[in-house]
Write a structure and sequence with these properties.
- The chain is α+β, with helices and mostly antiparallel strands and about 500 residues long.
- It has three domains: about 180 residues, Beta-Lactamase (2-Layer Sandwich); about 110 residues, Beta-Lactamase (2-Layer Sandwich), CATH 3.30.450.20; about 170 residues, Reverse transcriptase/Diguanylate cyclase domain (Alpha-Beta Plaits, 2-Layer Sandwich), CATH 3.30.70.270.
- The chain is about 40% helix and about 25% strand.
- Strand 10 and strand 11 form a beta hairpin.
- The longest helix has 18 residues.
- The chain is elongated and about 120 Å long.
- The N and C termini lie far apart (about 100 Å).
């Protein structure tokens, strides 16, 4: 593995006294994998095609220099990395000398002593480890790095690794290249190139910028200037805004940070979120609110806003749920609509009937229920086919839409060829006039119906009942009385309207 194939798998490593074959390599790899499980932190080890996997071009330069200078044991002298290379990279380089474990009886692996600890590494870690032992890093991290460095010396091959940094460091992930060096001064050495692969602040910035939600970080500040909002003596300073927020409010992102939010975000006042922001700061608890804004094109925009506490301020996360809201409305409409006629369906009608009866009882306003049934519709289907029957139902529904035009009117396909209409705020006299208009339009349409016992065209029967609080204890009572009037219309010749009289009996 690595840059040079090991053509002699049982090669004897000087100073080791034992062959390093497939079993030993497997054991070394297993040891590293076991450390990974123990630390609970991810790391990756690359032994082949390192240049293609590495993040820094310096690694390719170091590997090439090592490859040109290595001896038969796969070691390169430290002097090979002079000629300006050391001067340029020494801030990212470490030198470690291999030392036997202080107590071999405890089963611990070899230790390493830092002979050089690069200034750039020191700047990121906050400590200079020159002269200290690798084991002082802690058992888990020391075991991982020690195993990799020992493997590089034993195999005579470079090893590249990426690993997560210790908590609290500004670095999130490191990349390191381990190069085995030729023995010198009576010791075995490795040269380690170590560079931050990703800084935590860069990671956080990437996460913020990639967020699908609009993010706005605000700090509470004093606003002593005249004309500034003085709610409890302060305003809100923009600390950060991500690209999604700038896109959502169609504003230049660079114009936001460092300025008062009400001055640079036109819709801030429309959000009405300042009180909630103050409450979140005081309580330390997350708050969720929904706001509806009017877009330039007149479209309503539904925003889900989460406000979370942060040091000295709050973080707002705004999710545009307009499409989701509209999708939900469409689904509700579809769930409440008869697919064939596009009138309301039975479920919606039953719900509205119950609600309207309760409202009429509470308000004393009139309410009329009209039931309708197409005459001899089975014979129509038998004669003309179900496709023509569907078209007949659609034509009949169009007449309902043409007659019952108020927003409060609710026309529905109640089932099969049966229809129903709720007319709130309308008495029997007004309802009768509307139904007679519908009958007139149906006659004018003259849809052929050769199998009808009533006429040569399609007709319908109607029954109507007005809500009576003395008689109608619930919506079912009103429904039964309207249905009784419809039955009376069918029994007395069809093609007519029957209404329930004041004494409760159906009449023309």
């Amino acid at each position: 593995m690595g840059f040079v194939k090991n053509d002699c798998p049982n090669r004897v490593v000087p100073g080791c006294g034992a062959p390093v074959g497939a079993l030993e390599r497997t054991q070394a790899q297993a040891m590293v994998e076991g450390v990974e499980t123990g630390t609970g932190r991810w790391h990756q080890v690359v032994r082949e095609h390192i240049e293609a996997r590495a993040g820094s071009p310096d690694i390719a330069v170091l590997c090439d220099r090592w490859r040109q200078s290595r001896d038969a044991q796969g070691r390169a002298p430290l002097a090979a990395f002079a000629d300006g290379l050391w001067h340029r990279l020494h801030g990212r380089l470490m030198l470690l000398r291999r030392e036997p474990a202080s107590d071999p009886a405890d089963g611990a692996g070899d230790d390493f002593v830092y002979g050089h600890y690069g200034s750039e590494i020191c700047r990121h870690t906050g400590i200079d480890r020159t002269g200290t032992r690798l084991s002082e890093l802690g058992p888990q991290r020391a075991a991982l790095l020690g195993a990799l460095q020992t493997e590089a010396l034993q195999r005579g091959q470079p090893i590249y690794a990426v690993h997560v940094a210790e908590p609290g460091q500004p670095v999130f992930t490191w990349e390191r290249l381990i190069l085995p060096l030729a023995p010198s001064d009576g010791g075995e050495w490795v040269l380690v190139y170590c560079r931050p692969l990703q800084m935590r602040h860069e990671l956080y910035a990437d996460v913020v910028d990639a967020s699908g939600d609009a993010l706005l970080a605000l700090r509470r500040v004093d606003t002593p200037d005249a004309g500034e909002p003085q709610d409890e003596g302060g305003g809100w300073l923009v600390l950060m805004a991500n690209p999604r927020l700038a896109e959502l409010f169609e504003i230049d992102r660079d114009s936001l940070a460092g300025r008062l939010v009400h001055r640079v975000l036109p819709d801030w006042r429309l959000l009405h979120a300042e009180e909630e922001c103050l409450q979140v700061m005081r309580s330390g608890r997350v708050c969720r609110i929904t706001r509806v804004l009017m877009a330039v094109d007149g479209r309503l925009r539904y925003l889900q806003v989460q406000i979370a506490p942060m040091s000295g301020g709050v973080l707002l996360s705004l999710s545009d749920e307009t499409d989701l809201h509209e999708d939900r409305n469409r689904l509700r409409h579809l769930a409440a609509t008869d697919a064939l006629t596009t009138l309301a369906n039975r479920r919606l009608f039953d719900e509205q009937l119950r609600d309207q009866v309760e409202q009429a009882r509470a308000s004393g306003q009139p309410l009329v229920l009209v039931m309708a049934d197409i005459d001899a519709f089975k014979a129509y289907n038998d004669r003309y086919g179900h496709s023509a029957g569907d078209d007949c139902l659609r034509q009949f529904a169009l007449l309902f839409k043409a007659v019952f035009t108020r927003q409060s009117d609710l026309a529905a396909r109640y089932g099969g060829e049966e229809f129903a209409v709720l007319l709130p705020g309308t008495g029997l006299e007004g309802a009768t006039a509307l139904v007679e208009r519908l009958i007139e339009l149906l006659h004018q349409r003259r849809l052929p119906h050769a199998a009808s016992p009533v006429a040569g065209h399609v007709t319908a029967s109607f029954g109507a009942a007005a809500f009576d609080p003395a008689r109608d204890h619930d919506e079912l009572s009103l429904l039964r009385r309207a249905d009784s009037a419809l039955y009376q219309a069918k029994q007395t010749g069809r093609d007519r309207l029957c209404v329930v009289s004041t004494d409760g009996t159906p009449t023309r």
